[in-house]
Design goal:
The complex is a heterotrimer of chains A (310), B (439) and C (183). Chain A has 310 residues and is an alpha/beta fold. Chain A is built from 12 helices and 11 strands. In chain A, helix 1 links the parallel strand 1 and strand 2. Chain C is built from 6 helices and no strands. Chain C is elongated and about 65 Å long. The chains are: A alpha/beta (310), B mainly alpha (439), C mainly alpha (183). The structure holds sodium ion (2 copies).
Chain lengths: 310, 439, 183
Amino acid sequence: HAADHNWRFANLYGRGTAFGEVYEDLAKNIETMSDGRIKVQVLYSGEGVGTSGILGAVKTGLVTMGAPFQSMHAGELPAGVVEIGLPGGTDDAGDLLTLFHERGWDEVLTKAYGSQGLVWLDPYIQPPVYIITKKPINSVEDFKGLKIRAPGAYGKFLRNLGASPVSLAWSEIYTSLSTGVIDGSIGSNMIDHRDGNHVEVAKYMYRLPLAGAQVLPIIVNNKAWNKLTPDLKAIVKAATTVHAQEQLVKSRKWESEAVAEMEAKGLQWSPEPSAADKEAWAAAGAGLWDEYAAADPYSKELIEILRAEK
Amino acid sequence: MIGIELLTGILLACILITFALGAPVGLALGGIAMGVGYMTWGDGLFNVIPTTLEDTHFSFILLAIPLYIYMGQLLTRSGIGDAMFNASQLIIGKVRGSLAISVIVVCSMIGAMVGIIGAGIMTSGSIALRPMLERGYDKRLALGVIMAGGGLGILIPPSIPMIMFASATQNSVGRMFIGALVPAAISIVCLIAYVVITCKLNPKKAPLDPPPEVEPTVKEKLLTARDGGLALLLIVAVLGSIIMGIATPTESGAIGVVGAILLAIFFKRFKVRMVKNAGMQAAMLVSVAMWIIFGATVFSNFHLLMGVQNMVASFTQDLGLPPMMVIIMFQIIMLLLGFIIDEFIIVLMCAPIFTPIAVSLGFDPIWFGVLMILNIEIAVQTPPYGFALFYLKGIAPPGITMLDIYRSVTPFVLIKLMVLIIVMFNPDLVTWLPNLVMN
Amino acid sequence: MLQSAIRRYCLAVHALVALIGKSVSLVMPALAFVVAFEVFSRYFLNKPTIWAYDLSLFMFGYIAALGGAYAQQRRAHINVDILYNKVPPRVRSVFNILSFILAIFFMAIVLQMSIGKFEEAIEFNYRRQSEWAPHMHHYWIMMAVASVLLILQLSSDVLEEAVHLVTGKHIIDRSEYEEETVE
Ligand code: NA
Ligand code: NA
């Protein structure tokens, strides 16, 4: 029989990719757990909504549910950039869960997304952001003057370390690394570096991650959400919790696979950073907190909670 | 809710009707999507417009289109483009069809700068179409050469669709770039061979320059050679800026603009009016190209949101054919998709669906990717719907009709189809060079 | 009487659209300069700018969108003219009226969505996602203006074709346009 609710669920991974399958599982789970009352069509990268359009598309109801990457939406929902993890943030999954569920980040974010007609569902954790460079980074000093493709908050962080952040389209990273337009690039995670073939044209990965872990939400259009009966709402929420668990387990596995594959292709790690390097790294990140808190009221609330924790 | 097969049929019918009416293609595609969408989905679909606008106007990759078109307009209006062809005539002018051959060579060089079809065809068209038409070349030959040569932009590295293929299927971009070189060379040789043969069989197609009334002096010849050499140097400089890591392929168009202005000053042909007129013509061409891209993307986004990709995926799941037949089937599906979908979407949609099947049948993924690029080159220039056709119509002088363009493509589509088939049955042509260089 | 009113309307629209179409083409050299400056600043000064990326994209969007009405005025938008070129002039006018009404329908939706996005951009202070983070509101105003211009031009063209259909005469002399494009 026909479903009561026909949903479209957009994510930014390609069809058939490992991450794409996790979102496919979420869609299937919602269908099975709701006994077919909610039908979910998964839309992959390029299938009707561009990567920077997911937030807007869920907001208007063009797609019902989305897995956005908040850095793409820094100009629309600045608190999302704090949510994903400012440079220098923790990578401990336990700490992050406490922050979100016990210290009140969930309430702030529900408000922030709610103000734009979005329902904020259980966030999930994806692996950290790393920088790949053409030359080894022996100390933090080596970042001085390097041209590194790093958008938004990551760019600001690298500027604090003396590097020159460059803006480039994703599909030009490979060519630009290969010809030397840039000296390095961040990738949204190790898997992204592998998929972009960056190791063919840049060999060195820096050991300190730019952001320890990335926290990403699942969002639903408010109107579509309100059409659900309470039991269906509970079912969708339960399915996103299962999804968060799957992301945590699988993304770690894939991350290590991606690293192994890149190592087989000649990836090398820059030497272990010194204590002074680590300090400079943390300082470069901490300098951003004030700036982000001043830019947006919800970001301010999130950062105040972070500060209170320390 | 109607099924996706029926919807696809309705959309195709609407395209054919509006094409018959002679409607502006981009605006009509947008109008069809909104009209059919309103009836099947409701006004919620209208929200596809803002996200599509942001995707098309804020695409740094598409920024190559204005920059390269402007460079092309400056080159042709300052006479620098002509200087290049005049010099080449000095060398091979006695060969019938020589200008078309020079154009193919120039198109290949432009192909080595740009990574998308639009920039390739519109730049080549700006520089090379008028010189051929002015010398009395058959217009179908002239148009076909521009389309076939300009389309090489995605086959000769750098190529955006190849980068997209490699990342969607987790393959090496480097292998793909190198793997495409031999098929690209075969394409260029076949195109040149076609020009030579067809001009031999039908000399009217490419008249030889009438002998000059006064034989040019050695000094005049040297000047022509110098001017042509300098013009060629500009192309080399733009290429060099990419290879040396000064600029990305997109940005290099701006280097070309600056270089063209400097050369015009050097040739004492610089006029503010020339820069302004080139800007005006370029702006119009950019706008025309972008309204088509926008309307077509609105159309295909609607079609994708309705699930056309699932139709393709389920159709290809259990074909139950012998391996090579599966590959041929894939090529036919992509050629058919080329009726209604643009180059990037074909890659994004088909690469992840088809490639795992091809690999599981024992085929090389890089070879399959190069086949896909060769196929897209054909798909974008087969009537009635093809971006290469639209771009060429945009750049062509007012007297050229779409029928001229449709008719001009036949021999060139056949040549590209031949290359596709040669590569399909000789995978070594793709795999040999990357294995040699990269292992 | 009615015919001269239509003619005046069409001429006014043509003048406005031509003025904006020609003005926006001045952005073209500026766009090339901005991109070339970024290359210079990054390669020779080792100081990539934070603004060139977004600025060049905004300029691109302005040229692309605002030139649309002018291209329509010059009938430069690409069409498939196979059957179109074979039918008698009055049938061609019918074809044009149908096509242009479809285009007006599309542009009316683009206009409506652009105004909606503009209001949203003001309410939520939308910006680009980059470090420079320029405002988005002006882009949506520009899109609304581009849509209005295209609708005006298309409406003028529909009237022009309607007059031709009824009287068999052209109220606008298009021969000068063609000379201009050839130059
Ligand atoms: Na190319
Ligand atoms: Na086609």
